[in-house]
Specification:
- The structure holds two protein chains of two kinds.
- Helices cover 71% and strands 1% of the residues of chain A.
- By secondary structure, chain A is an all-alpha fold.
- Chain A folds into three domains: 1-33, no CATH class; 38-69, no CATH class; 78-303, MetI-like fold, CATH 1.10.3720.10.
- A two-stranded antiparallel ribbon of chain A has the order 1-2.
- In chain A, helix 4 (83-114) crosses helix 8 and helix 10 packs antiparallel against helix 13.
- The longest helix of chain A has 32 residues, at 83-114.
- Chain B is α+β, with helices and mostly antiparallel strands.
- Chain B folds into two domains: 26-255, 3-Layer(aba) Sandwich (Rossmann fold), CATH 3.40.50.300; 260-384, OB fold (Dihydrolipoamide Acetyltransferase, E2P) (Beta Barrel), CATH 2.40.50.
- Chain B has nine helices and 20 strands.
- Chain B has a six-stranded mixed sheet with strand order 6-7-8-3-9-10, with helices on both faces. In chain B, strands 13-12-11-14-20 form a five-stranded antiparallel sheet.
- In chain B, strand 17 and strand 18 form a beta hairpin.
- The two termini of chain B are 46 Å apart.
- The chains are: A mainly alpha, B alpha+beta.
- The complex binds adenosine-5'-triphosphate and magnesium ion.
- Magnesium ion (MG) binds next to helix 2 of chain B.
- Adenosine-5'-triphosphate binds next to strand 2 and helix 2 of chain B.
């Protein structure tokens, strides 16, 4: 795999393409947000100071850096403000959702990988079919399902299972349902691709050596699908932490998530600087699982898989 | 050391023939086994007895059903008809993990996420052995396949030959009654292959297990096996020790599949005790051959005769020399230890005759387009009616 390095300029150009996009679409915006997070609110346009004035040359640059401060971070990290709770609650909601996604997604992916080859493309198609309608509309649809007089309560009442309608909408449960529903394809697809390329004779070998199928699943199939588990979990966990639409539409007023806090800070309190600080801290929180994931991947590359 | 071991094997082999003993009970019995995949019959009414400690080879062309037969014994496929018994126990419905049969897979199927030691320990762990016992067994198996220093490696860090040894060690770690080997040496080069063949034979002797090996390499089957079953299109054509398969093939197919052979279509002219007189278009003189079958004059038969069982000479033989073909050298294959002469007969048919190259210098070597005489004795060939 590893081609000898320094294969000339063509090779470097190829590598440069993703780095260029990363620079343009991630590093530059991030630096802007970082800069704003170190500024102060003012009533002006744009609503923060200092502004970087390069026409002043070196002095302007020095002036700019001397005015930067960490006040916004102090504000965000203050226990009296809700941000720390929101971070914690977001991590918990995202973590629990990821676990639920795994529990729901794994059997689906496993079933898909075990289905006859000829229908597997159709199954993959069906998993990504929801993407064909707007995410927002699909989340709104859940309001219609989960509300007091929604489809679910109507059905359960009609079947005589419940007398009084269940209160699901505007609770954390609704948020979990929304996240699991919306993120399921991101969990199923990596799991499916890991399970699908697994060699079936490994299971036969395990059985041949005296291992019943259920146990063989835990000893062979599951460990070999761990890369898919890691990829799916991260693909779900990271965006779920910063999720805004689902808690806003389905969650209650007491559902605390950092995406919602950021939104409030930005639109209601009109503080660009504090919301930027929230975003930067969120990124730092999320870098941890990404680094863990990259470690796993690197180890796998090393293992020649 | 190696020599002494070979000799013991030889001694054991010479006396080992339970299939000729009517009182011996076979370990494995295939009773009228049929396996169909949809409309296709992969294994067709196979009845076969395999005895304890036997080294049994399944030989046949690709797609003839060897793997299918083996997978039925391992439990991965259920027979469509008939049944398989192992040590008297009917295996119908017994799942693979409860059969005292282990398989060495053609692809090795080593667990990529486990070390060599863990791969080998997998079976003993499932069997519920104690920790110390498992460790001892792993040690023993590693020593057996000479991979002691590789215990901690992962399968992808091994060479093909080493992986194959791990697969073998893993398959025998549970001391199964029967070890199934599906083309175990397919991935090895010729030299390593031959070495491993002898190691397999040693292993089978020292472990006292019954080995069932699938191969489509006839030399391999002849080398390792006590008995060989030749399969074709899902049917067992012949089951016999290697020498019998080679010298007494039951059908044209077997004669042709194992080794080189000339097959000559003949018509029986007359029977004189154990002698037959055969007429053939290859020579105006009738052939005299020894045969114990029940041919009648007028029967269509084939004479199968191996290239090394005939003599070739530049000089006309005397009339008493027996059967003789006259022809012209069409091609010569020089193989070092022997030369194969392709002789074209007047009727256009070519026959193969091989001769050992006994001396380095030959006064009058046989060369292209020489007129030659090919002679053979009455019992050089086998008369086949199928
Ligand atoms: N699961 C299956 N479904 C349908 N046909 C099958 C299946 N397994 C095997 N066959 C067919 O049965 C026949 C015998 O297959 P098998 O694998 O036993 O051959 P083989 O003798 O082992 O050949 P090779 O030497 O190439 O390994 C083949 O024609 C194959 O196509
Ligand atoms: Mg096969």
């Amino acid at each position: 795999m590893a081609l000898p390095g320094s294969r000339g300029i063509g090779r470097r150009l190829v590598i440069a393409v993703p780095f260029f996009w990363l620079l343009l679409l991630f590093v530059v915006p991030f630096l802007i947000v970082l800069k704003i997070s170190l500024s102060q609110d003012v009533i002006a346009q744009p609503p923060y100071t200092p502004l970087l004035d390069l026409s002043q040359g070196w002095a302007g640059l020095k002036d700019f850096f001397s005015q930067l401060n960490f006040d916004n971070y102090g504000y965000v990290l203050d226990w009296n403000n809700e941000f720390l709770n929101a971070y914690g609650s977001s991590l918990i909601i995202a973590g629990v959702s990821t676990l639920l996604l795994l529990l729901v997604g794994y059997p689906i992916a496993y079933g898909m990988a075990r289905a006859p080859r000829s229908i597997q493309p159709t199954l993959v198609m069906m998993v990504i079919l929801p993407f064909w309608t707007s995410f927002l509309i699909r989340v709104y649809a859940w309001i219609g399902i989960l509300s007091q007089d929604g489809l679910l309560n109507q059905a359960l009442t009609a079947l005589g299972i419940i007398d009084t309608p269940l209160e699901i909408l505007n609770t954390d449960l609704a948020v979990y349902i929304g996240i699991v529903y919306s993120y399921l394809p991101f969990m199923v697809l990596p799991l499916y691709s890991a399970l699908e390329k697994m060699d079936g004779t490994l299971l036969e070998a395990a059985e041949d050596l005296g291992c019943p199928p259920m146990k063989a699943f835990w000893l062979v199939t599951f460990p070999l699908s761990l890369p898919g588990v890691a990829a799916g979990a991260l693909l779900c966990f990271i965006p779920a932490v910063g999720e805004f639409v689902i808690p806003d539409l389905l969650g209650g007023s007491d559902t605390l998530m950092i995406g919602k806090s950021l939104w409030t800070e930005f639109t209601v309190n009109r503080s660009w600087t504090a919301s930027s600080a929230v975003a930067v801290l969120l990124l730092i929180v999320l870098v941890v699982p990404i680094v863990i994931y990259q470690n796993i991947q690197a180890r796998q590359l090393e293992a020649g898989k | 050391m190696a020599k002494a071991r070979t000799q013991t094997i030889g001694a054991v082999r010479r006396t080992f023939s339970p299939w000729t003993d009517p009182s011996a009970t076979p370990l494995i019995r295939f009773e009228n086994v049929v396996k169909s995949f949809g409309a296709f019959t992969a294994v067709n009414h196979v009845s076969l007895d395999i005895y304890e400690r036997e080294f049994f080879a399944l030989l046949g062309p690709s797609g003839c059903g060897k793997t299918t037969l083996m997978r039925m014994l391992a439990g991965f496929e259920e027979p469509t008809e008939g049944r398989i018994t192992l040590a008297g126990q009917d295996l119908t419905g017994v799942p693979p993990y409860e059969r005292p049969v282990n398989m060495m897979f053609q692809s090795y199927a080593l667990f990529p996420h486990m070390s060599v030691a863990d791969n080998i320990a997998f079976g003993p762990k499932q069997a519920g052995m104690g920790k110390g016992e498992i460790a001892a067994r792993v040690e023993e198996m590693l020593a057996l396949v000479k991979l002691e220093s590789f215990a901690k490696r992962k399968p992808h860090q091994l060479s093909g030959g080493q992986r194959q040894r791990v697969a073998l060690a893993r398959a025998v770690a549970n001391r199964p009654k029967v070890l199934l080997l599906d083309e175990p040496l397919g991935a090895l080069d010729k030299k390593l292959r031959e070495e491993t063949q002898f190691e397999l034979m040693d292993l089978q002797q020292s472990l006292g297990m019954t080995f069932l090996i699938v191969t489509h390499d006839q030399e391999e089957a002849m080398t390792v096996a006590d008995r060989i079953a030749v399969m074709n299109h899902g049917v067992l054509v012949q089951v016999d020790p290697p020498a019998t398969i080679y010298e007494q093939p039951a059908t044209k197919y077997v004669a042709d599949f194992i080794g080189d052979v000339n097959i000559i279509a003949c018509k029986v002219e007359g029977c004189f005790g154990s002698d037959l007189r055969l007429a053939t278009s290859l020579t105006p003189h009738p052939l005299q051959v020894t045969h114990s079958g029940d041919q009648k004059p007028g029967d269509e038969v084939w004479l199968a005769i191996r290239p090394e069982k005939m003599r070739i000479s530049l000089d006309a033989p005397d009339a008493a020399a027996g059967n003789c073909f006259e022809g012209e050298i069409w091609d010569i294959g020089y193989l070092g230890d022997l030369s194969v002469y392709h002789v074209e007969l007047p009727c256009g048919t070519r026959i193969k005759v091989s001769q050992p190259n006994l001396s380095r210098v030959v006064e009058r070597p046989i060369t292209w387009e020489d007129k030659v005489y090919v002679t053979f004795t009455p019992h050089a060939g086998v008369v086949l009616s199928r």
